[in-house]
Design goal:
TIM Barrel; eight-stranded parallel beta sheet; about 35% helix; 8 helices
Amino acid sequence: MIRLLTRADDAACSINANKAIRATYVDGILKNTSVLATGPAVADAAERFRDLDGLCIGLHACLNSEWASPRWGPVLPREKVPTLVDAEGYFYQNPEMLREKGFDIAQALAEIQAQINKLRDAGFELSYMDEHMMFDRCGTLGPGLCEMAKSQGLVFRPEYKRFKPTGPADKKGQAEEIDHATWLLQKLKNASPGAYLCVGHPTYEDAGFIKSPEAGPGAAGSKRTVGEERNQQRLMFMRPDVVAYCKTNDIQLIRYDEIDTSE
C-alpha cells in the first residue's frame, strides 16, 4: 500500500492561496495545510477553513520573507528579535542571508513559539509543525525545534520519503515540459509500497500579489510565472485523473495527526 501525506504550504500568504487550498481539500486529495502565522491573510484562513473538519492544520514556522511584496516580519515585537530582521524590520529574504547575518537561537525559538500561540488564538487546532523555506538546513535549531514540537504536542519531521523531481523532464530549464499533476501520477505509479510526502503551494493562476518572482519557489529553471507554477500545484492536488487514480488504486491519504510517530 502507498500512504501519501499531501500538504499545501503557505496558507495565509494571500486570500488567493486560501481559496485554492480550500478547493484542493473539498474537491481533491489534500489532507494537510501549513499556515503562515506571519502572513497577511491569517484571519481569512481561519474563517475559510473553519468548517473543514477533515483538514489537518499545522504551523508553517517562518523566519524568512522571500517576496518583494508581500513582505512579513515577526509576530513578536521587532525589538525583541533584532537578530531575525533587516533594517526595515522584515525577515531576511532567505535562510542563507539569515545565517550570514547571524541570529540568536533563543530569539528564533521565542518567535516560533509566538507563531504557535497566534494561530491557536485565531482558532486553529494545530497538529504539526514544519519549516518555511527549510530555514534550519544546517541544523542549528534542530534540538530546540524538536523539543518545542514535543512540548506543544505537534508532529515534527516524520520519517516520510518526499517525492522529488527526477528524470529528463525535471532538469533545470525543462521543468515546464511536464505539468505537476502528470508528474505526481507518474510518481505514484512507479512508487514502491511505503509512506510518501507530496508538498505543493496551491494558488489560482492570478498570483499577481507576488512581486519579484525570480526570488520565489518555482521560478528557478522554469519559464512559468509564479501564478502558472502555483496553479499547476493546485491542479496536482485536484485534477480529476489524479483524484480518480488515488480512489481506485488504494492510495491511502494521510493526515499528520494520523501518523504513527513510532514508525
